[in-house]
Write a structure and sequence with these properties.
Elements (H helix, E strand, L loop, with lengths): L1 E6 L4 H10 L1 H4 L3 E4 L1 H11 L3 E3 L7 H10 L5 E5 L9 H13 L4 E2 L2 H13 L4 H5 L1
Parallel strand pairs: 1-2, 1-4, 2-3, 4-5
Helix pairs in contact: 1-3, 4-5
């Protein structure tokens, strides 16, 4: 499965901790991330991550394009709802595209854990047929 990883600045440490905790599951999949998030995850996990540009430089748009082409199966987007971003339209585009293309999306760590455990159990295999 192709997993997209995005984290706003205030959630990057949480994303690192999440990826350390679920490294075994994540290692079995292809990972894609916005630039800074991907680099930070690689530093603590040694996972191989395809890195796009930093989110504010267009990385969220690049990930959105992957979603539009049905090349992402799951998104974990740890976002900070209390701090508005200058690139907020890109944030909402990712969320909208996940809804349009039936791509499971977690925007907080509680939902991310549910999705990653579901992935490990094989509950998301329907994505392969959906493609």
């Amino acid at each position: 499965m192709n997993i997209g990883l995005i984290a706003h600045d205030s959630k990057k440490k949480l994303m690192q901790n999440f990826c350390v905790a679920y490294r075994g599951i994540l290692a079995k999949n292809d990972l894609f991330a916005t630039g800074t998030t991907g680099r930070l995850i690689e530093e603590v996990t040694n996972l191989n991550i395809h890195k796009f540009l930093a989110g504010h430089l267009g990385g969220e748009q690049q990930l959105a394009a992957q979603i539009e082409h049905n090349q992402i199966d799951l998104i974990i987007f740890l976002r900070d709802p209390l701090s508005p971003k200058s690139h907020e339209p890109d944030v909402f585009k990712v969320i909208k595209l996940c809804d349009m293309h039936n791509i499971p999306l977690a925007t907080n760590v509680a939902t991310a854990e549910l999705l990653i455990k579901s992935l490990d159990r094989g509950d998301l295999e329907w994505r392969e047929m959906y493609k």
